[in-house]
Amino acid sequence: MNRIPFLFLLATLCLSLIHCKTSSPKTAKAGKPIRVLMVGGGTSHNFGMWYRNVDGQTLSRDGFATVNYVGDPDSMMAFLPQADVLYLSNNRPITDPAVRQAIMAHVNAGKGLLIAHAAMWYNWKDWPEYNQQIVSGGSRGHDKYGTFDVTVTETGHPIMKGVDPKFTLKDERYYYIPDPAGPGVEVLASSSRSAGAVAGSDKIFPSIFVVKNPKARIVGLALGHDAESHNIPNYQALLRNSVAWVGRR
Known about the structure:
- This protein is of the alpha/beta class.
- It has a single domain, classed as Rossmann fold (3-Layer(aba) Sandwich), CATH 3.40.50.
- The protein has helices at residues 3-30, 47-60, 97-108, 128-135, 227-230, 233-246; strands at residues 34-39, 65-70, 85-88, 112-116, 137-142, 146-152, 166-171, 174-178, 185-193, 205-211, 218-221.
- The strands form two sheets. It has a nine-stranded mixed sheet, with helices on both faces. Strands 5-8 form a two-stranded antiparallel ribbon.
- A hairpin with a 6-residue loop joins β10 (205-211) and β11 (218-221).
- The longest helix has 28 residues, at 3-30.
- It is globular.
- The model is unreliable at 1-29 (pLDDT under 50).
């Protein structure tokens, strides 16, 4: 036997085995839980119940994510550097300039951001960049708590996987309006008054949308006042899909 071709084949086989061995940790890493930092706190909502407890359980189920929750937004710095996804639900003020800068840095680094319900309000007059650049708009009003319809407009988007094309729930229907000076949004689902609704705006408003940020994946989820949203399967599917998508899974 000619030893040179044999040695060449043996070396090629060894390199192939080494490549297979070094590639496997990437697959394992992709299967790890998504690290979520959830931020609550503020007024008019039970953040501890519906976000820390219920949403925390929804995201933790089946090892999908690990969740750290803070009720004081200015205390998020201890967890933010390790987070894959920042989940803002708070309307409690973010007053520390370093925390504001860290949120911007998180986005500029291409990490995921989920903006939920109260966090898309125009909460901070002294921080206009938040609504303009991160939320690409915001809400200054909503219908009185009650029943309304949510209609999916982009059924093929991964965030809509397993979500009914149209569903009804009880919630505060936020009047989210995009800011023309912001990066823009892609609306995935919109809300409208139900046939039985007796008050509220006749306009259609975004309920789930993607902010067209050039660096990070950002999702706005306007739903989420109490049990009538957090406990229903459609909301839970939207939440998990949103975290998976912004976390690039």
